[in-house]
Amino acid sequence: MTVPVPATHDPAAQDSSVTRSRATAFAPFTVRIFRILWLASLVSNIGGWMQSVGAQWFLIEGDSSPALVALVQTAAAAPVILLAIPAGVLGELLNRRRVLIATQLVQVGVVAVLVVLTWQDALTPGSLLAATLALGVVSAIQLPAYEALVPDIVPKPMIADAAALSSTGINLARAVGPALAGLVAAQVGLAAVFALNALSFVFFLIVLVAWRGYRPPPVRAEPFLDASRAGLRYVRHSAIVRKILVRFCLFLLPANALWALLPVVAAGTLGLSAAGYGLLLGALGVGSLLGATVLGKARTRLGVNGTVMWGSAAYGAGLILVVVWPTLWVTIPVLLVTGAAWIAVVATVNGTIQAFLPVWVRTRGLSIYQLAFYGPTAVSAVVLGVLADRWGSEAVMVVAGGLTVLLAVSQVIWRLPETQGIGREIVPIPGETIEHLSDEDDAVLVLVHYTVAPTDRAEFVRTMAWVEQARLRTGARAWRLYRDPARDDRLVEAFTVGSWREHLSQHEARTTEYDGDLLDRARALSVGVPTVDHLVVMPRPHHPRHPSNPTDRPPL
Protein backbone atom coordinates (compact mmCIF):
# COMPACT_ATOMS: atom_id res chain seq x y z
CA MET A 1 0.00 0.00 0.00
CA THR A 2 1.40 3.39 -0.98
CA VAL A 3 2.77 5.53 1.82
CA PRO A 4 0.85 8.83 1.89
CA VAL A 5 2.64 12.02 0.98
CA PRO A 6 2.18 15.21 2.99
CA ALA A 7 0.16 17.84 1.20
CA THR A 8 1.89 20.64 -0.62
CA HIS A 9 1.64 23.87 1.31
CA ASP A 10 0.56 27.06 -0.36
CA PRO A 11 3.53 29.46 -0.66
CA ALA A 12 1.28 32.33 0.41
CA ALA A 13 0.86 30.68 3.79
CA GLN A 14 4.57 30.82 4.59
CA ASP A 15 6.30 33.18 6.95
CA SER A 16 6.71 36.44 5.07
CA SER A 17 10.22 36.85 6.49
CA VAL A 18 11.47 33.88 4.49
CA THR A 19 11.73 34.12 0.72
CA ARG A 20 12.50 31.55 -1.92
CA SER A 21 16.03 32.91 -2.22
CA ARG A 22 16.71 32.01 1.41
CA ALA A 23 14.83 28.70 1.49
CA THR A 24 15.66 26.80 -1.70
CA ALA A 25 13.65 23.86 -2.95
CA PHE A 26 16.25 21.38 -1.63
CA ALA A 27 16.82 23.02 1.76
CA PRO A 28 14.80 20.34 3.66
CA PHE A 29 17.40 17.76 2.62
CA THR A 30 19.78 19.49 5.04
CA VAL A 31 17.60 18.06 7.84
CA ARG A 32 19.03 14.54 8.22
CA ILE A 33 15.89 12.75 9.40
CA PHE A 34 13.79 14.30 6.64
CA ARG A 35 16.35 13.10 4.09
CA ILE A 36 16.23 9.54 5.46
CA LEU A 37 12.43 9.45 5.74
CA TRP A 38 12.11 10.83 2.21
CA LEU A 39 14.23 7.96 0.88
CA ALA A 40 12.24 5.41 2.91
CA SER A 41 8.99 6.89 1.66
CA LEU A 42 10.24 6.75 -1.93
CA VAL A 43 11.14 3.05 -1.60
CA SER A 44 7.78 2.24 0.04
CA ASN A 45 5.86 4.16 -2.60
CA ILE A 46 7.63 2.24 -5.35
CA GLY A 47 6.59 -0.98 -3.62
CA GLY A 48 3.04 0.28 -3.30
CA TRP A 49 2.76 1.03 -7.00
CA MET A 50 4.19 -2.37 -7.81
CA GLN A 51 1.55 -3.92 -5.55
CA SER A 52 -1.29 -2.06 -7.31
CA VAL A 53 -0.09 -3.04 -10.78
CA GLY A 54 0.41 -6.65 -9.71
CA ALA A 55 -3.08 -6.88 -8.19
CA GLN A 56 -4.81 -5.44 -11.23
CA TRP A 57 -2.80 -7.51 -13.68
CA PHE A 58 -3.52 -10.72 -11.76
CA LEU A 59 -7.23 -10.08 -12.37
CA ILE A 60 -6.65 -9.14 -16.01
CA GLU A 61 -4.75 -12.39 -16.67
CA GLY A 62 -7.57 -14.31 -15.05
CA ASP A 63 -10.08 -12.82 -17.51
CA SER A 64 -11.88 -10.99 -14.72
CA SER A 65 -14.58 -8.52 -15.66
CA PRO A 66 -13.89 -4.75 -15.73
CA ALA A 67 -16.10 -4.40 -12.65
CA LEU A 68 -13.90 -6.82 -10.69
CA VAL A 69 -10.72 -5.07 -11.82
CA ALA A 70 -12.16 -1.74 -10.73
CA LEU A 71 -12.97 -3.25 -7.31
CA VAL A 72 -9.24 -3.19 -6.51
CA GLN A 73 -9.55 0.59 -6.13
CA THR A 74 -12.73 0.22 -4.11
CA ALA A 75 -11.13 -2.27 -1.71
CA ALA A 76 -8.20 0.09 -1.15
CA ALA A 77 -10.37 3.19 -0.75
CA ALA A 78 -13.43 1.97 1.17
CA PRO A 79 -11.63 1.69 4.56
CA VAL A 80 -10.70 5.36 4.39
CA ILE A 81 -14.40 6.21 4.12
CA LEU A 82 -15.14 4.24 7.28
CA LEU A 83 -12.03 5.10 9.30
CA ALA A 84 -11.02 8.60 8.16
CA ILE A 85 -12.39 10.46 11.19
CA PRO A 86 -11.12 8.03 13.88
CA ALA A 87 -7.74 7.86 12.11
CA GLY A 88 -7.50 11.65 12.12
CA VAL A 89 -8.11 11.76 15.87
CA LEU A 90 -5.49 9.05 16.47
CA GLY A 91 -2.98 10.93 14.33
CA GLU A 92 -3.72 14.13 16.24
CA LEU A 93 -3.51 12.70 19.77
CA LEU A 94 -1.04 9.77 19.60
CA ASN A 95 2.69 9.55 18.95
CA ARG A 96 2.80 9.57 15.15
CA ARG A 97 6.07 7.61 14.91
CA ARG A 98 4.60 4.77 16.97
CA VAL A 99 1.44 4.77 14.85
CA LEU A 100 3.57 4.40 11.72
CA ILE A 101 5.68 1.60 13.23
CA ALA A 102 2.54 -0.36 14.09
CA THR A 103 1.04 0.10 10.63
CA GLN A 104 4.24 -0.99 8.88
CA LEU A 105 4.34 -4.19 10.96
CA VAL A 106 0.78 -5.08 9.99
CA GLN A 107 1.39 -4.34 6.30
CA VAL A 108 4.48 -6.56 6.25
CA GLY A 109 2.37 -9.42 7.62
CA VAL A 110 -0.47 -8.95 5.13
CA VAL A 111 1.80 -8.81 2.10
CA ALA A 112 3.80 -11.81 3.36
CA VAL A 113 0.61 -13.88 3.30
CA LEU A 114 -0.10 -12.60 -0.21
CA VAL A 115 3.37 -13.68 -1.35
CA VAL A 116 2.91 -17.20 0.01
CA LEU A 117 -0.52 -17.62 -1.61
CA THR A 118 0.78 -16.37 -4.97
CA TRP A 119 3.89 -18.57 -4.81
CA GLN A 120 1.74 -21.65 -4.18
CA ASP A 121 -0.75 -20.74 -6.94
CA ALA A 122 -3.44 -20.48 -4.25
CA LEU A 123 -4.27 -16.82 -4.75
CA THR A 124 -7.87 -16.15 -5.80
CA PRO A 125 -9.62 -12.89 -6.73
CA GLY A 126 -11.44 -13.07 -3.40
CA SER A 127 -8.26 -13.45 -1.31
CA LEU A 128 -6.53 -10.73 -3.35
CA LEU A 129 -9.38 -8.28 -2.71
CA ALA A 130 -9.40 -9.27 0.98
CA ALA A 131 -5.68 -8.51 1.27
CA THR A 132 -6.17 -5.23 -0.58
CA LEU A 133 -8.97 -4.36 1.84
CA ALA A 134 -6.73 -5.14 4.84
CA LEU A 135 -3.96 -2.95 3.44
CA GLY A 136 -6.56 -0.23 2.88
CA VAL A 137 -7.56 -0.38 6.55
CA VAL A 138 -3.96 0.07 7.67
CA SER A 139 -3.39 2.80 5.11
CA ALA A 140 -6.44 4.66 6.41
CA ILE A 141 -4.91 4.70 9.89
CA GLN A 142 -1.47 5.86 8.78
CA LEU A 143 -2.53 8.51 6.25
CA PRO A 144 -3.26 11.41 8.67
CA ALA A 145 -0.36 10.53 10.97
CA TYR A 146 2.17 10.64 8.13
CA GLU A 147 0.76 13.80 6.61
CA ALA A 148 1.16 15.60 9.94
CA LEU A 149 4.68 14.25 10.56
CA VAL A 150 6.74 16.39 8.17
CA PRO A 151 5.73 19.73 9.80
CA ASP A 152 6.97 18.20 13.08
CA ILE A 153 10.52 17.59 11.83
CA VAL A 154 11.45 20.52 9.57
CA PRO A 155 11.59 24.24 10.44
CA LYS A 156 8.48 26.19 9.53
CA PRO A 157 10.12 28.13 6.64
CA MET A 158 10.98 24.80 4.99
CA ILE A 159 7.55 23.17 5.26
CA ALA A 160 6.40 24.09 1.76
CA ASP A 161 9.61 22.86 0.17
CA ALA A 162 9.54 19.68 2.26
CA ALA A 163 6.02 18.97 1.06
CA ALA A 164 7.03 19.66 -2.54
CA LEU A 165 9.94 17.21 -2.24
CA SER A 166 7.60 14.59 -0.81
CA SER A 167 5.28 15.15 -3.75
CA THR A 168 8.24 14.72 -6.08
CA GLY A 169 9.04 11.44 -4.33
CA ILE A 170 5.63 9.93 -4.89
CA ASN A 171 5.73 10.92 -8.54
CA LEU A 172 9.17 9.37 -8.96
CA ALA A 173 7.64 6.21 -7.48
CA ARG A 174 4.68 6.53 -9.85
CA ALA A 175 7.14 6.57 -12.77
CA VAL A 176 9.40 3.76 -11.53
CA GLY A 177 7.00 1.41 -9.71
CA PRO A 178 4.62 0.44 -12.54
CA ALA A 179 7.41 -0.07 -15.06
CA LEU A 180 9.41 -2.14 -12.55
CA ALA A 181 6.29 -4.18 -11.68
CA GLY A 182 5.67 -4.95 -15.36
CA LEU A 183 9.28 -6.03 -15.82
CA VAL A 184 9.38 -8.20 -12.68
CA ALA A 185 5.97 -9.76 -13.42
CA ALA A 186 7.02 -10.64 -16.96
CA GLN A 187 10.46 -12.04 -16.03
CA VAL A 188 9.92 -13.57 -12.57
CA GLY A 189 6.22 -13.59 -11.71
CA LEU A 190 3.66 -11.81 -9.56
CA ALA A 191 4.91 -13.39 -6.33
CA ALA A 192 8.17 -11.47 -6.76
CA VAL A 193 6.24 -8.22 -7.27
CA PHE A 194 4.42 -8.69 -3.96
CA ALA A 195 7.64 -9.77 -2.21
CA LEU A 196 9.40 -6.57 -3.24
CA ASN A 197 6.50 -4.57 -1.78
CA ALA A 198 6.92 -6.45 1.53
CA LEU A 199 10.64 -5.58 1.52
CA SER A 200 9.80 -1.92 0.96
CA PHE A 201 7.66 -1.97 4.13
CA VAL A 202 10.51 -3.66 6.02
CA PHE A 203 12.92 -0.93 4.92
CA PHE A 204 10.58 1.82 6.10
CA LEU A 205 10.01 -0.04 9.37
CA ILE A 206 13.76 -0.25 10.02
CA VAL A 207 14.09 3.49 9.49
CA LEU A 208 11.24 4.24 11.89
CA VAL A 209 12.54 1.89 14.61
CA ALA A 210 16.07 3.33 14.35
CA TRP A 211 14.72 6.89 14.62
CA ARG A 212 14.94 7.68 18.34
CA GLY A 213 14.96 11.47 18.36
CA TYR A 214 11.32 12.17 17.50
CA ARG A 215 9.53 14.39 19.99
CA PRO A 216 5.80 14.68 19.29
CA PRO A 217 4.31 18.16 19.61
CA PRO A 218 2.29 18.88 22.76
CA VAL A 219 -1.43 18.27 22.38
CA ARG A 220 -4.40 19.05 24.58
CA ALA A 221 -5.94 15.84 25.87
CA GLU A 222 -9.50 15.35 24.63
CA PRO A 223 -11.95 12.46 24.87
CA PHE A 224 -12.01 10.52 21.61
CA LEU A 225 -15.64 11.29 20.72
CA ASP A 226 -15.29 14.98 21.62
CA ALA A 227 -12.18 15.26 19.44
CA SER A 228 -13.99 13.56 16.55
CA ARG A 229 -16.98 15.89 16.81
CA ALA A 230 -14.70 18.92 17.00
CA GLY A 231 -13.06 18.02 13.69
CA LEU A 232 -16.38 17.45 11.95
CA ARG A 233 -17.81 20.63 13.45
CA TYR A 234 -14.90 22.69 12.17
CA VAL A 235 -15.29 21.51 8.57
CA ARG A 236 -19.08 21.87 8.73
CA HIS A 237 -18.79 25.52 9.69
CA SER A 238 -15.82 26.41 7.46
CA ALA A 239 -17.35 27.56 4.17
CA ILE A 240 -13.98 27.70 2.39
CA VAL A 241 -13.04 24.11 3.27
CA ARG A 242 -16.52 22.85 2.33
CA LYS A 243 -16.54 24.54 -1.08
CA ILE A 244 -13.08 23.25 -1.98
CA LEU A 245 -13.91 19.69 -0.93
CA VAL A 246 -17.22 19.66 -2.82
CA ARG A 247 -15.49 20.82 -6.01
CA PHE A 248 -12.77 18.22 -5.50
CA CYS A 249 -15.31 15.40 -5.10
CA LEU A 250 -17.10 16.45 -8.29
CA PHE A 251 -13.77 16.29 -10.15
CA LEU A 252 -12.84 12.88 -8.77
CA LEU A 253 -16.10 11.13 -9.63
CA PRO A 254 -15.49 11.10 -13.41
CA ALA A 255 -11.70 11.51 -13.23
CA ASN A 256 -11.22 8.11 -11.57
CA ALA A 257 -12.25 6.45 -14.83
CA LEU A 258 -8.61 6.58 -15.92
CA TRP A 259 -7.28 4.75 -12.86
CA ALA A 260 -10.15 2.24 -12.75
CA LEU A 261 -10.33 1.35 -16.45
CA LEU A 262 -6.83 1.95 -17.85
CA PRO A 263 -5.82 -1.72 -17.28
CA VAL A 264 -8.80 -2.85 -19.37
CA VAL A 265 -8.04 -0.32 -22.12
CA ALA A 266 -4.36 -1.30 -22.10
CA ALA A 267 -5.08 -5.01 -22.50
CA GLY A 268 -8.04 -4.66 -24.86
CA THR A 269 -7.87 -1.58 -27.09
CA LEU A 270 -4.08 -1.24 -27.07
CA GLY A 271 -3.30 -4.98 -26.83
CA LEU A 272 -0.50 -4.49 -24.28
CA SER A 273 1.10 -6.96 -21.87
CA ALA A 274 1.86 -6.34 -18.20
CA ALA A 275 5.07 -4.57 -19.22
CA GLY A 276 3.12 -2.35 -21.61
CA TYR A 277 0.60 -1.45 -18.92
CA GLY A 278 3.52 -0.56 -16.62
CA LEU A 279 4.82 1.69 -19.40
CA LEU A 280 1.50 3.57 -19.50
CA LEU A 281 1.51 4.09 -15.74
CA GLY A 282 5.14 5.12 -15.98
CA ALA A 283 4.17 7.83 -18.49
CA LEU A 284 1.52 9.09 -16.05
CA GLY A 285 4.17 9.13 -13.30
CA VAL A 286 6.69 11.05 -15.37
CA GLY A 287 3.96 13.51 -16.34
CA SER A 288 3.06 13.98 -12.68
CA LEU A 289 6.72 14.62 -11.90
CA LEU A 290 6.93 17.24 -14.64
CA GLY A 291 3.73 18.81 -13.39
CA ALA A 292 5.07 19.00 -9.84
CA THR A 293 8.16 20.90 -11.01
CA VAL A 294 6.12 23.70 -12.61
CA LEU A 295 3.18 23.69 -10.20
CA GLY A 296 4.50 26.54 -8.05
CA LYS A 297 4.88 28.88 -11.02
CA ALA A 298 1.51 27.87 -12.44
CA ARG A 299 -0.27 28.55 -9.16
CA THR A 300 1.49 31.89 -8.76
CA ARG A 301 0.40 32.94 -12.23
CA LEU A 302 -3.08 31.40 -12.42
CA GLY A 303 -4.13 31.25 -8.78
CA VAL A 304 -5.83 28.28 -7.15
CA ASN A 305 -8.98 28.49 -9.29
CA GLY A 306 -7.11 28.86 -12.58
CA THR A 307 -4.70 26.01 -11.83
CA VAL A 308 -7.50 23.60 -10.93
CA MET A 309 -9.61 24.75 -13.90
CA TRP A 310 -6.93 24.27 -16.54
CA GLY A 311 -5.67 21.08 -14.90
CA SER A 312 -9.20 19.60 -14.92
CA ALA A 313 -9.73 20.56 -18.57
CA ALA A 314 -6.42 18.99 -19.67
CA TYR A 315 -7.14 15.83 -17.67
CA GLY A 316 -10.61 15.44 -19.19
CA ALA A 317 -9.22 15.92 -22.68
CA GLY A 318 -6.60 13.26 -21.95
CA LEU A 319 -9.29 10.73 -20.99
CA ILE A 320 -10.96 11.26 -24.36
CA LEU A 321 -7.79 11.16 -26.47
CA VAL A 322 -6.52 7.91 -24.93
CA VAL A 323 -9.63 6.19 -26.30
CA VAL A 324 -10.36 7.96 -29.60
CA TRP A 325 -6.71 7.82 -30.75
CA PRO A 326 -5.53 4.38 -29.51
CA THR A 327 -1.99 4.44 -30.83
CA LEU A 328 0.89 3.96 -28.42
CA TRP A 329 2.89 6.83 -29.94
CA VAL A 330 -0.05 9.15 -29.24
CA THR A 331 -1.10 7.61 -25.93
CA ILE A 332 2.29 8.06 -24.24
CA PRO A 333 2.51 11.88 -24.83
CA VAL A 334 -1.17 12.24 -23.90
CA LEU A 335 -0.59 10.42 -20.62
CA LEU A 336 2.39 12.64 -19.88
CA VAL A 337 0.12 15.69 -20.10
CA THR A 338 -2.66 13.89 -18.22
CA GLY A 339 -0.30 13.01 -15.36
CA ALA A 340 0.80 16.64 -15.09
CA ALA A 341 -2.84 17.76 -15.07
CA TRP A 342 -3.70 15.25 -12.33
CA ILE A 343 -0.96 16.49 -10.00
CA ALA A 344 -1.93 20.10 -10.73
CA VAL A 345 -5.46 19.49 -9.44
CA VAL A 346 -4.71 17.13 -6.55
CA ALA A 347 -1.64 18.93 -5.17
CA THR A 348 -3.29 22.35 -5.44
CA VAL A 349 -6.41 21.25 -3.57
CA ASN A 350 -4.38 19.30 -1.02
CA GLY A 351 -1.95 22.14 -0.40
CA THR A 352 -4.68 24.75 -0.13
CA ILE A 353 -6.57 22.69 2.44
CA GLN A 354 -3.50 21.95 4.55
CA ALA A 355 -2.27 25.54 4.52
CA PHE A 356 -5.72 26.83 5.48
CA LEU A 357 -6.47 24.43 8.34
CA PRO A 358 -5.43 25.79 11.75
CA VAL A 359 -2.85 23.72 13.58
CA TRP A 360 -5.23 22.49 16.30
CA VAL A 361 -7.44 20.67 13.81
CA ARG A 362 -5.03 20.05 10.92
CA THR A 363 -4.74 16.28 11.21
CA ARG A 364 -8.49 15.83 11.70
CA GLY A 365 -9.19 18.19 8.81
CA LEU A 366 -6.79 16.29 6.57
CA SER A 367 -8.55 13.06 7.49
CA ILE A 368 -11.75 14.59 6.13
CA TYR A 369 -9.82 15.58 3.00
CA GLN A 370 -8.78 11.93 2.68
CA LEU A 371 -12.44 10.98 3.05
CA ALA A 372 -13.28 13.38 0.21
CA PHE A 373 -10.48 11.84 -1.87
CA TYR A 374 -11.17 8.16 -1.32
CA GLY A 375 -14.96 8.35 -1.08
CA PRO A 376 -15.50 9.27 -4.75
CA THR A 377 -12.73 6.81 -5.67
CA ALA A 378 -14.54 3.91 -4.02
CA VAL A 379 -17.97 4.87 -5.35
CA SER A 380 -16.96 5.76 -8.88
CA ALA A 381 -14.78 2.66 -9.29
CA VAL A 382 -17.81 0.42 -8.74
CA VAL A 383 -20.15 2.53 -10.87
CA LEU A 384 -17.66 2.91 -13.70
CA GLY A 385 -16.89 -0.80 -13.67
CA VAL A 386 -20.57 -1.71 -13.94
CA LEU A 387 -21.12 0.82 -16.74
CA ALA A 388 -18.04 -0.49 -18.55
CA ASP A 389 -19.48 -4.02 -18.44
CA ARG A 390 -22.63 -2.74 -20.14
CA TRP A 391 -21.38 -0.07 -22.58
CA GLY A 392 -17.66 -0.77 -22.89
CA SER A 393 -14.66 0.81 -21.19
CA GLU A 394 -13.94 3.12 -24.12
CA ALA A 395 -17.40 4.70 -24.11
CA VAL A 396 -17.30 5.23 -20.34
CA MET A 397 -13.86 6.87 -20.58
CA VAL A 398 -15.09 9.31 -23.25
CA VAL A 399 -18.18 10.29 -21.25
CA ALA A 400 -16.11 10.71 -18.06
CA GLY A 401 -13.63 12.91 -19.93
CA GLY A 402 -16.44 15.09 -21.28
CA LEU A 403 -17.91 15.54 -17.79
CA THR A 404 -14.49 16.50 -16.42
CA VAL A 405 -14.08 19.18 -19.10
CA LEU A 406 -17.57 20.55 -18.39
CA LEU A 407 -16.77 20.80 -14.69
CA ALA A 408 -13.62 22.71 -15.55
CA VAL A 409 -15.58 25.18 -17.70
CA SER A 410 -18.04 25.71 -14.82
CA GLN A 411 -15.21 27.19 -12.75
CA VAL A 412 -15.43 30.32 -14.84
CA ILE A 413 -18.63 31.04 -12.86
CA TRP A 414 -18.38 28.75 -9.82
CA ARG A 415 -14.90 29.75 -8.68
CA LEU A 416 -12.85 28.15 -5.95
CA PRO A 417 -12.32 30.49 -2.96
CA GLU A 418 -8.94 32.12 -2.53
CA THR A 419 -7.31 31.77 0.91
CA GLN A 420 -4.38 34.18 0.73
CA GLY A 421 -4.22 36.76 3.52
CA ILE A 422 -6.56 34.93 5.92
CA GLY A 423 -4.74 34.75 9.28
CA ARG A 424 -4.31 31.15 10.45
CA GLU A 425 -2.11 31.59 13.52
CA ILE A 426 -3.65 30.85 16.92
CA VAL A 427 -4.39 33.82 19.19
CA PRO A 428 -6.21 34.24 22.54
CA ILE A 429 -9.82 35.36 22.34
CA PRO A 430 -9.48 39.16 22.33
CA GLY A 431 -10.73 41.09 25.33
CA GLU A 432 -11.56 38.02 27.43
CA THR A 433 -9.68 36.14 30.12
CA ILE A 434 -10.72 32.83 31.61
CA GLU A 435 -9.59 30.66 34.48
CA HIS A 436 -10.14 27.02 35.31
CA LEU A 437 -13.28 27.58 37.33
CA SER A 438 -15.15 24.30 36.94
CA ASP A 439 -14.86 20.55 36.40
CA GLU A 440 -13.63 19.70 32.89
CA ASP A 441 -16.75 17.78 31.89
CA ASP A 442 -19.27 20.48 32.84
CA ALA A 443 -21.18 21.99 29.90
CA VAL A 444 -20.98 25.79 29.68
CA LEU A 445 -23.35 28.57 28.66
CA VAL A 446 -21.50 31.76 27.70
CA LEU A 447 -23.32 35.12 27.66
CA VAL A 448 -21.62 38.15 26.12
CA HIS A 449 -23.44 41.44 26.77
CA TYR A 450 -23.00 44.22 24.19
CA THR A 451 -24.23 47.81 24.23
CA VAL A 452 -24.75 48.88 20.61
CA ALA A 453 -25.91 52.29 19.39
CA PRO A 454 -29.00 52.15 17.13
CA THR A 455 -26.97 53.59 14.24
CA ASP A 456 -24.49 50.68 14.47
CA ARG A 457 -27.04 47.93 15.03
CA ALA A 458 -27.36 46.74 11.41
CA GLU A 459 -23.58 46.54 10.98
CA PHE A 460 -23.26 44.75 14.32
CA VAL A 461 -25.84 42.11 13.36
CA ARG A 462 -24.06 41.50 10.04
CA THR A 463 -20.76 41.07 11.87
CA MET A 464 -22.31 38.68 14.37
CA ALA A 465 -23.38 36.40 11.52
CA TRP A 466 -19.65 35.80 10.89
CA VAL A 467 -18.94 35.59 14.62
CA GLU A 468 -21.51 32.80 14.85
CA GLN A 469 -19.51 30.69 12.39
CA ALA A 470 -16.27 31.43 14.27
CA ARG A 471 -17.80 30.28 17.57
CA LEU A 472 -19.20 27.11 15.97
CA ARG A 473 -15.89 26.30 14.24
CA THR A 474 -14.01 26.46 17.54
CA GLY A 475 -16.38 24.41 19.69
CA ALA A 476 -19.80 25.98 20.24
CA ARG A 477 -22.68 23.50 20.00
CA ALA A 478 -25.41 26.15 19.61
CA TRP A 479 -25.39 29.94 19.13
CA ARG A 480 -28.04 32.69 19.20
CA LEU A 481 -28.18 36.48 19.38
CA TYR A 482 -30.81 37.98 21.71
CA ARG A 483 -32.18 41.51 22.15
CA ASP A 484 -33.52 43.14 25.30
CA PRO A 485 -37.06 44.42 24.54
CA ALA A 486 -36.71 46.96 27.35
CA ARG A 487 -33.45 48.43 25.99
CA ASP A 488 -32.88 48.89 22.26
CA ASP A 489 -29.12 49.21 22.72
CA ARG A 490 -28.66 45.94 24.64
CA LEU A 491 -27.85 42.73 22.71
CA VAL A 492 -26.70 39.43 24.18
CA GLU A 493 -24.68 36.73 22.41
CA ALA A 494 -25.36 33.29 23.89
CA PHE A 495 -23.60 30.05 22.97
CA THR A 496 -23.13 26.67 24.59
CA VAL A 497 -19.97 24.57 24.70
CA GLY A 498 -19.97 20.86 25.45
CA SER A 499 -17.46 21.01 28.31
CA TRP A 500 -15.36 23.42 30.30
CA ARG A 501 -12.31 21.69 28.82
CA GLU A 502 -13.42 22.57 25.32
CA HIS A 503 -14.20 26.17 26.28
CA LEU A 504 -10.67 26.52 27.65
CA SER A 505 -9.42 25.24 24.30
CA GLN A 506 -11.53 27.90 22.55
CA HIS A 507 -9.66 30.55 24.49
CA GLU A 508 -6.17 29.12 24.39
CA ALA A 509 -5.72 26.93 21.30
CA ARG A 510 -8.49 27.23 18.70
CA THR A 511 -9.13 30.87 17.82
CA THR A 512 -7.26 31.98 14.68
CA GLU A 513 -6.17 35.49 13.78
CA TYR A 514 -9.09 35.70 11.37
CA ASP A 515 -11.58 34.68 14.08
CA GLY A 516 -9.97 37.13 16.48
CA ASP A 517 -10.38 39.95 13.96
CA LEU A 518 -14.11 39.16 13.71
CA LEU A 519 -14.47 39.31 17.49
CA ASP A 520 -12.50 42.57 17.59
CA ARG A 521 -14.85 44.03 14.97
CA ALA A 522 -17.89 43.12 17.06
CA ARG A 523 -16.35 44.57 20.23
CA ALA A 524 -15.47 47.78 18.40
CA LEU A 525 -19.15 48.32 17.60
CA SER A 526 -20.07 48.05 21.29
CA VAL A 527 -20.25 51.11 23.54
CA GLY A 528 -17.88 50.25 26.33
CA VAL A 529 -16.33 46.87 27.06
CA PRO A 530 -18.72 43.91 26.65
CA THR A 531 -19.23 41.85 29.79
CA VAL A 532 -19.07 38.07 29.82
CA ASP A 533 -20.87 35.56 32.05
CA HIS A 534 -19.96 31.87 32.23
CA LEU A 535 -22.73 29.59 33.51
CA VAL A 536 -22.13 25.93 34.23
CA VAL A 537 -24.88 23.35 33.79
CA MET A 538 -26.58 22.01 36.91
CA PRO A 539 -27.45 18.30 37.32
CA ARG A 540 -31.03 17.55 36.44
CA PRO A 541 -33.22 17.19 39.56
CA HIS A 542 -34.40 13.67 40.19
CA HIS A 543 -38.09 13.04 40.87
CA PRO A 544 -39.11 9.48 41.73
CA ARG A 545 -41.80 8.17 39.40
CA HIS A 546 -43.94 6.83 42.29
CA PRO A 547 -42.95 8.59 45.54
CA SER A 548 -43.89 6.71 48.68
CA ASN A 549 -44.28 9.90 50.68
CA PRO A 550 -47.26 12.03 49.50
CA THR A 551 -45.32 15.18 50.38
CA ASP A 552 -42.74 14.29 47.73
CA ARG A 553 -45.35 14.46 44.99
CA PRO A 554 -44.96 17.46 42.63
CA PRO A 555 -47.74 20.07 42.82
CA LEU A 556 -50.52 19.62 40.28
List low-pLDDT spans: 1-23
The main sheet comes to:
4 strands, antiparallel
**Which percent range describes the beta-strand content?**
5-15%
Overall mean pLDDT? 83
CATH-derived topology of the largest domain: Growth Hormone, Chain: A
How many separate structural domains? 2
Protein topology:
Layout: H1 32-61, H2 66-93, H3 96-119, H4 125-147, H5 150-153, H6 159-187, H7 190-210, H8 224-236, H9 239-255, H10 257-267, H11 274-324, H12 328-356, H13 362-391, H14 393-410, E1 444-451, H15 457-474, E2 476-484, E3 487-497, H16 500-510, H17 513-524, E4 531-536
Antiparallel strand pairs: 1-3, 1-4, 2-3
Helix pairs in contact: 1-2, 1-6, 1-7, 2-4, 2-8, 2-10, 2-13, 3-4, 3-7, 4-13, 6-7, 6-11, 9-12, 9-13, 9-14, 10-11, 10-14, 11-12, 11-14, 13-14, 15-17
